[in-house]
Amino acid sequence: MLNIDLRPPASLPALQAEAERIGFTISSDPLTGALLRTLAAAKPGGQLLELGTGVGFGSAWLLAGMDQQARLLTVDNNEQHQSIARAHLGSDPRLSFQLIDGHAAITAFLEAGRRFDLIFADMYPGKYQRLTDTLQLLAPGGLYVVDDLLPAPDWEPERGQRVETLIQTLEQEPMLSLIPLDWSVGVIIAARRG
């Protein structure tokens, strides 16, 4: 592997300390974060959606790649977790938060005709549930990104089947061009054809 300084966002150490304090162990991997930053930089003025704020790791990396015209909407249903992200990232005018169930958020975005240039799906709704609906939220040329696809010791028994179903569904979706990356924690990047 290349030895590259990932230059993590300045907010990351504080977010890490907060995650450790509350025992939150499912934050985005640094390599995935650096990839998110790069993909966000490829969407100048873009509308970005993060399904699963957690404590804000993914948001921090996405913000680090976004230009000043881009906007990030991050969704989570856990007030404690999202409040940490708000405390450390909430002063950035490019970022908005929604404290809402993922299913309700996806339904609301569909009903409003919203489209996003990048979707990072890091919660069950949008990844293992409501995938077809979530893909409808992609603008032409939009990127759909999921991670945590390589087996890990803490996986519950049914997780492997969920991942397999996700991969098969994405592979069979004619509107997508995708690449699986056997790298970091396992990532898929899918682009919606125009």
Question: What would you say this structure looks like, in words?
Answer:
38% of the residues lie in helices and 22% in strands. The chain has 7 helices and 7 strands. The protein has a 7-stranded mixed sheet with strand order 3-2-1-4-5-7-6, sandwiched between helices. Strand 1, helix 3 and strand 2 form a beta-alpha-beta unit. The chain is globular and about 40 Å long.
Task: Produce the secondary structure layout.
Elements lengths: L11 H11 L7 H12 L5 E5 L5 H9 L5 E6 L2 H11 L5 E5 L2 H10 L4 E6 L9 H6 L1 E9 L12 H14 L3 E6 L5 E6 L2
Parallel strand pairs: 1-2, 1-4, 2-3, 4-5
Antiparallel strand pairs: 5-7, 6-7
Tags for this model:
Rossmann fold, 194 residues, 38% helix, single chain, alpha/beta, seven-stranded mixed β-sheet, globular
Series of secondary-structure elements, N-terminal to C-terminal: HHEHEHEHEHEHEE
Largest sheet entry: 7 strands, mixed
The CA-CA distance between the termini, in Å, is: 34 Å
Assess the beta-strand content as a share of residues: 15-25%
Compute the gyration radius: what is it?
16 Å
Q: Low-confidence parts, pLDDT < 50 over ≥5 residues?
A: none
> Helical region count?
7
The counted number of beta strands is: 7
CATH architecture name: 3-Layer(aba) Sandwich
Structural class: alpha/beta
CATH level-3 fold name? Rossmann fold
CATH class: Alpha Beta
Could you give the order of strands across the largest sheet?
Answer: 3-2-1-4-5-7-6
* Overall mean confidence score, pLDDT: 94
Helix amount: 25-40%
Describe the global form: globular
At the fourth level of CATH, the homologous superfamily is: Vaccinia Virus protein VP39
Domain module tally? 1
